[in-house]
Amino acid sequence: FEKWLSEKLHLNLMGVVSGIGMILGVLLSIFLFLMLPQWATNGLNALLNFGSKGIVYNLIEGLIRIIIFVCYILLTSLIPDIKRTYMYHGAEHKTITCYEKGLELTPANAKTCKRVHNRCGTTFLFFVMLVSILVFSIANSFLNVDGVLRLLLKIALLPLVAGLSYELLRGLAKTDCFIFYPLKAPGLLLQHITTREPDES
User: Fold this and answer.
1) What would the pLDDT profile of 3-15 be if each residue is shown by its tens digit?
2) Between 150 and 63, residue with greater pLDDT
3) What DSSP state is assigned to residue 50?
4) Which residue, 50, 78, 87, 158, has most beta carbons within 10 Å?
């Protein structure tokens, strides 16, 4: 009974820790990618007075968000465990490409494949930031809200932004036309940070 109780308490504790970790992760994301860019843009707006309703405000805020995202990726890539995770990410891409080429799934075949992939989550996150500039600009032109209301509006629009970004990712993954390369290139470049060349293990 003591062993069973100990295991139950351990599992419950792990569930609580995982739940707290997930909540903290969501709050950190909201702070880093919604609140901080908005505060920084408000500060710049107070200095330069470019207005809080137009496309300029949203472009600056979007640019700040992208800079934070790239810095976040670069900083996390310095952590040994994350470096290893990025190697697994590279291995995943190589494996998917190997499978999609119809090759036998062996380490030797996978090694010959690229570690960047058209349908990667890193590219999706970049598209989320790109699409959010457009969506938030349109929303702000119709609803002139500020402060907490503007933040809540952005959170409410996230499903729309994510859905549009997913469709953009899916659509661009189906074409290799050079016309669309400027849209694909930033995400592919970011993947060189979030993937590493995997070793045999």
Assistant:
1) 665 666 666 777 7
2) 63
3) -
4) 87
Helix (H/G/I), strand (E/B), else coil: 60:
helix
Residue 2 CB-half CA count within 13 A: 0
Give the separation between CA 46 and CA 101, rounded to whole angstroms: 54
pLDDT digits (tens, 9 = 90+) for 107-139: 999 999 999 999 999 999 999 999 998 898 888
Which H, E and C letters describe 156-201, residue by residue?
A: HHHHHHHHHHHHHHHHHHCCCCHHHHHHHHHHHHHHHHHCCCCCCC
Per-residue tokens: 98: 């190997």
Here the tokens at position 17 are 């820790």
101-110 pLDDT per residue, tens: 999 999 999 9
> Got the DSSP string for 89-129?
HHHHHHHHHHHHTT----HHHHHTS-S--TT-HHHHHHHHH
- C-alpha 62/C-alpha 129 separation (Å) is 6
Q: Which residue has the tokens 């993947």?
A: 191
Q: What does the pLDDT read at residue 5?
A: 59
Q: Which two tokens stand for residue 129?
A: 């930031």
Tokens of 57: 């405000």
